[in-house]
Amino acid sequence: MTKHRLTPTLSAPRVASALLGACVVLATGSVGSAALADSRPALNTPPADAKVSEVSQNRPASTPLEIAAERLPKVSAAQVLDLAAKQIGVRENSQGGGTKFHSWYMSSPRAKETVARDGGSIQGYANAPWCAMFVSWVGEMAGIRPTMGWDAYTVTHAKWFKNNQHWGTTPTPGAVVYFDWAGGKDLDGIDHVGFVKKDNGDGTITTIEGNTGNGNVEQRVRPTSQVVGYGYPVYAD
Fold first, then answer.
1. Quick one: which of 217, 205, 210 has its CA closest to 171?
2. How far apart are CA 169 and CA 231, in angstroms?
3. How confident is residue 29, by pLDDT bands cut at 50, 70 and 90?
4. Cα(76)–Cα(166) distance, integer angstroms
5. How far apart are CA 53 and CA 89, in angstroms?
6. Sheet of 167-168: strands edge to edge?
7. Spatial distance between the Cα atoms of 131 and 118, rounded to a whole number of angstroms
8. Sign of the CA dihedral 176, 182, 186, 188?
9. Which helix (H) or strand (E) holds 220?
10. I need a labelling partner for 9 at 20 to 30 A (CA). Which of 41, 113, 181, 203 fits?
11. CA 12, 21, 135, 59 torsion: positive or negative?
């Protein structure tokens, strides 16, 4: 079975220490190169006066992510899901890597930060589990990384949403969904991550995920009993 969880080499206390003060600062660094910015797919961006999503609608921005969203393009959940869906069929190589998500992450400034935090080397990401890299890539290409976050480690990415007050238990379209295959609810037990496409209303959700099946980007249907929680980027309506 394809591995999903990228496990840092740091001990648990050092990981916890590295998270202190993480919040939105970890997501707002520079892209790193003009080439990365130029590689973003064109999106059908809503008008400049489009409202921020319901987490901040009808009241002043109050969370770090809402404040960050005021400086970003207005991108809807539907646009992000469309971008994610266009990646369906992308497949890893026989070593478990080789995707554009790996290449992007390794060339980003975030890779240096996570190596400093977790140990190892940038080259170690070349064949690493990539579900979180996929989610991070989508956020970067959509131009909303400061409210999507970026990381190669699912647990840290989930804690970033929680530390920024954008964590909950409701499956909304475009939410970032975190799974524990054993059905646990502890963030430290997270195994996998993807995007919610739809709440099916029957105890399941339809998702778009990277590093799933036999190492592909796929649309899946998952039981909510395996969901630890959801991170909520800030979207335009």
1. 205
2. 9
3. very low
4. 16
5. 30
6. 167-168, 227-231, 176-179, 192-199, 204-212, 216-223
7. 17
8. negative
9. strand 216-223
10. 181
11. positive
Which residue in 137, 141, 172 sits closest to 152, CA to CA? 137
CB burial string 86-115: b at 16+ within 10 A, e below: ebeebebeeebbbbebbebbbebebbeebb
Q: Are 43 and 83 in contact (CB under 8 A)?
A: yes
Residues 6+ apart with CB under 8 A from 177: 171, 193, 194, 195, 196, 205, 207, 222, 227, 230
Q: CA-to-CA distance for 170 and 175, rounded, in angstroms? A: 9
Write down the pTM of the prediction: 0.80
What own/partner pairs with CB < 8 Å and gap ≥ 24 does 193-196 have? 193/131, 193/132, 193/135, 193/154, 193/157, 193/158, 194/131, 194/134, 194/135, 194/220, 195/80, 195/81, 195/84, 195/135, 195/138, 196/171, 196/172, 196/230
**Residue 191 DSSP SS3:** coil
* SS3 state of residue 101: helix
Contacts of 203 (CB under 8 A, 6+ apart): 223, 224, 225
Side-chain-side CA neighbours of residue 42 (13 Å) = 1
The pair of three-digit structure tokens given for residue 197, joined into one six-digit string: 């496409």
Render pLDDT for 148-185 as a digit per residue (tens, 0 to 9).
999 999 999 999 999 999 999 999 999 999 999 999 99
Q: How many CA atoms does the CB half-sphere of 195 hold within 13 Å?
A: 28
